[in-house]
Amino acid sequence: MAARNKVWRVIRKIILLLVVLHLTFLILFRWFNPPITFTQLGSILEGNGLQRDYIAYDEMGDNIKLAVMAGEDQLFPDHNGFDIKRIKLAIKYNKKHPNKVRGASTISQQTAKNVFLWQKGGFFRKAIEVYYTFMIENLWTKKRILEAYLNVIEMGEGIYGVQAAAQTYFNKDAKELTRAEAAKIAACLPNPKKLKVKPLSRYVATRGDFLQKQMINLQQDPDIQELLHQ
Fold first, then answer.
1. Considering the entire predicted model, what is its pTM?
2. β-bridge partners, 154
3. Distance from C-alpha of 151 to C-alpha of 11, rounded to nearest angstrom
4. Does a structural domain hold residue 4?
5. Contact 158, 43 (CB under 8 A)
6. Beta-ladder partners of 160
7. pLDDT(156) > 80
8. Structural domain of residue 112, as residue ranges?
9. pLDDT band at 23; cut points 50, 70, 90
10. pLDDT tens, 208-227?
11. For the chain, the helix, strand and coil percentages under 3-state DSSP, each to the nearest 5
């Protein structure tokens, strides 16, 4: 009995330590970017390399921020991490088209997944993603979530973050991206390994044109304007 109690005390201490470390990382990453993510590590192990250059929010420019919100999450400033209406529509669509699944992840969910988790894993990983999304929505600011997203998201094979993408595709800094260039980068995000910015695929070109129109409309929103100029 004494030995069993000792084991349980050790287990409780380990669990407590893990919880403290976990919360520490959540809070630290509100101000600091992760040294490396599971996805970036996977890219290295798969032989795709790692092109990455973390930059601050004010070094990113408005165009790329607008472009990713236009393409990935137009309600980003307003929701609490989850777009319930979009999720319901995706569920309805996927029931009718089981071989052509449509996602409904917000920028917050994608940030949680790309900073803390991994790309595959089915329902188990998705459940943890929900938890991390809730946590960053409550511990971080919207500005920080968008900044982290634009620094860690894959934007091409082995290319992570907007600065690396801008340099690779257009030989310029992220802040200098034109509306059209930013829209092309955002257009590849649903599948950055297959959807090419360079050489430009037909899908990325077409969707890029569509996103430019969405960016014009989105820019008029007061909440978007407030987020862009924080």
1. 0.88
2. 160
3. 36
4. no
5. yes
6. 52, 154
7. yes
8. 30-228
9. confident
10. 999 999 999 999 899 999 99
11. 65, 0, 35
Phi, psi of 159 (to 5 degrees): -110, 120
Token pair of 127, please?
């459940």
Q: Strands (DSSP E) along the chain, which ranges?
A: 51-52, 159-160
CA 204, 96, 84 angle in degrees (round to 5)? 75
Q: For 130-141, what is each residue's pLDDT tens digit?
A: 999 999 999 999
46 within a domain of the structure (yes/no): yes
pLDDT of 161 > 90? The answer is: yes
Judge whether 11 lies within some domain. no
Which structure tokens are listed for 167? 């340099």
CB 101 within 8 A of CB 89: no
Closest CA to 129 of 150, 106, 152, 146: 106
- CATH number for the domain harbouring residue 38: 1.10.3810.10
Domain count across the chain: 1
**Mean of per-residue pLDDT scores for the chain:** 87
Q: What pLDDT is recorded for position 88? A: 67
For residue 215, being part of any structural domain is answered with: yes
Q: Which two tokens stand for residue 16?
A: 């407590």
